[in-house]
Amino acid sequence: MQNTIKIAIIGYGNVGRGAVKAIGRNADMKLACILSRSPERVRKELGDMVSVFTADSIDELKKADVAILCSGSKDDLPIQGPFYAKYINTVDSYDNHSQALSYFKAMDNAAREAGTVSCVSIGWDPGTFSLQRVMGNALIPGSKTYGFYGTTPKGGISMGHSDAIRRIDGVQDARQYTHAIPEAIESARSGESHELKPGDMHWRECFVVAKDGADTTKIEHEIKNMEGYFASYKTIVHFVSQEELDVKCSGFPHDGLVISSGKTGDSNGALIEYRNVWDSNPEATANILVAHARAAKRLADENRRGAFTILDIPPAYLSPHSREELIRSFL
What is the pLDDT of residues 95-116, one digit of tens each? Predict the structure, then answer.
């Protein structure tokens, strides 16, 4: 019987809430503690369910085996990731693709120096979709591989992009929906030779609650010109009341697919598709993070050190099942 993996959660928003639920569904895991910048808010919500501490409670944090970092990518993780990697094995969902390599290097340096393991950019994109892109490209040499998000008419809500908007001065609350462009999906499936750029594949829709007296023109300009998030896309911004946002943007659904298309042999067409449909985007991310907390513990137990992406981790390390059971039941 495996030893129980003790998990700490750092940051208690929607992903943190999902992580609490996910840990409860894994028999080999236990929620050790939560660290938050607003511990009283968390204690009020959870009561005596778990010990809650301030974000700088390092001695309490070190009693866990792995910490799941549930904060935002834009401003929090670039600081929090390297900081907490000095003390404990970590898993995070850093999602800014354009800065992923520099973030990985910073985490790798911090974890190697501290002798810890950090699993970085773990979610469904970056994350499971990254893995499928690599698989499609490897199994169909020369293929073009694309990821699409928000394929339903409503689109899919992006947690990281929504958080980035909320960080803008004058914004009270916000939700951002990504919409895939249907013609681009069909183009990818057909294997057409031209390259699809990000702005050819998606457009973005933002619902924003501005604070009283805020300059909405300035807010809209900052959103549309935000590098790494909106600058490369057609972006529509709607300013709404908090009541309208709560009604219109309730729930956190998202979906997407990875398409790899090309040829085998001389001229035989080949197509691989991988799709996710999530009623709850934050709970999806949380479940993926929690599975990778198991992998982080196993890597640490092997005296591995440094940063790892989903591309580096054997799938068996994510599973609670033994190797024999995986071969018997899943191979």
Answer: 999 999 999 999 999 999 999 9
